[in-house]
Amino acid sequence: MREKLRILVAEMVRGGIPLELARREFERVYLEEVLAAHEGNHSAAARELGIHRNTLAKKLEAPQSRLRRVSLAS
């Protein structure tokens, strides 16, 4: 797992992706995966994440990053 992450990070660095953009994208994808694992149940996902369900909802409401839009278009 760590090696896969290292490869992805190296690719992002070579592509000039700023740390803040990479961090936001990682967090969003992570939250989406936890939510999917709980079949869309925000309360259960938030409990697993150790955050309030309103915090989870707000983080997911944030506009998708430019990185996300570009990578989905590729």
TrEMBL record:
Pfam families: HTH_8 (PF02954). Gene3D superfamilies: Homeodomain-like. It comes from Geothrix limicola. This is DNA binding HTH domain-containing protein. Residues 23-61 form the DNA binding HTH domain. InterPro entries: Homeodomain-like_sf, HTH_Fis.
